[in-house]
Amino acid sequence: MGIQLINGFHSILVALTKHPGIWWFLAPVFVLWIVMEIYFGEYKKEKLGWNSILANGISLSWINIASFRVLFLENASSVTDFYLRLLILVILFLYGIFVIYIAFTHKLSHNIGSWLAGPTTVYFLSTMSVLWGQGHLEINQWILIDFIILYIIIYFIFYLIKKKLGTLGEVEAIEKGQSPI
Question: How far apart are CA 177 and CA 159, in angstroms?
């Protein structure tokens, strides 16, 4: 089991370095992801608004549409598991559409909407869409487990970073006579 997990992490790393063209998709995703996480770390009192939930849903849907294009136009004949990749993209695309729907209708609570469309969730799924949907990474249970482990690690890292940040938001709160946290 341990060897398969290590091999899965290695496959993810290789997929990120072997196909430089994916960085046209991933660079803006990673920049947005990091900036959003740092922003909400600095301004702890500010919450993800419905408009940001909407924008994140559109971002995820757009990345999936771009992955559909690559899968159909560039990789349709070269991947052996075309329909599995197509299914993954359809599921991720529908998730993005669901996020857009909840942002427009406010059918779910704001807290649930923020969790479903938070930067870590949306941009992590966008990365999965690019790597799996565009055929750059093998699809198997070990890589799925590795993705789950990576999500937890990344979530925890951003949690720690955001916990250490916050001086800008604290200064604003103190100036307004509010508690900084």
Answer: 26
Tokens standing for residue 181 = 């946290």
The SS3 assignment for 111 reads helix
Residue reference for tokens 């559409």: 97
Instruction: Report how far residue 138's alpha carbon sits from residue 140's, in angstroms, rounded to the nearest whole number.
Output: 6
Strand (E) or helix (H) holding 57: helix 50-73
The pTM assigned to this predicted structure is 0.82
In the predicted model, residues of the chain with pLDDT beneath 70 are: 75, 166-181
The separation between the first and the last C-alpha atoms of the chain, rounded to the nearest angstrom, is 43
Which has the closest alpha carbon to 148: 48, 9, 52, 54?
9
Q: What 3-state DSSP class applies to 128? A: helix
- Amino acid in the structure at residue 167: T
